[in-house]
Amino acid sequence: MKRHPPQLLDVVGIGPDTAVALLITVGDNPERMDSEASFAALRGVSPVERSSGRRQYRRLNRGGDRQGNAALHRIVFTCLRVDQRTRDYCERRIKEGKTRREIVRCLERYAAREVFHLVRQLQPGPRS
User: Fold this and answer.
1) In sequence order, what are the residues at sequence separation of 6 or more whose Cβ sits closer than 8 angstroms to the Cβ of residue 114?
2) N or C, which terminus of the chain has less Cβ within 10 Å?
3) Based on the number of CB atoms within 10 Å of its own CB, is 128 exposed (0-12), middle (13-18) or buried (19 or more)?
4) Dihedral of CA 39/14/85/120: which sign?
5) Alpha-carbon dihedral sign for residues 38, 89, 92, 77
6) Prediction pTM value
7) What residues pair up with 48 in beta bridges, in sequence order?
8) Which residues in 96-118 are b (16+ Cβ under 10 Å) and which e?
9) pLDDT of 63 above 80
């Protein structure tokens, strides 16, 4: 447990296995991770435009690293189970008319944003 970065383990929903899965996928592609959006796309949690005519909506990206995506998915469902703020957010979005699938997609993107900033602190600076 001492080998894992403590910043990741402090986040609700991230345990040692999830932290390792995230770090492995980041370690393979550090040069491609320059923004929150690229990190989310690399993990497969960025929305994809799927509109037709007057109907506009987005669907979940099926691409990206599946292990990293599964790690973010575990984080979200752990938070839904144990974190009161996440449950309150979910209830509020349901009252707004969102489906559970849309809420999970939003939460995965939020988790990706939070993990990106934590992992970004761990990455060494650019080589000269």
Assistant:
1) 11
2) C
3) exposed
4) negative
5) positive
6) 0.77
7) 59
8) eeeeeebbbbbbbbbbbebbbeb
9) no
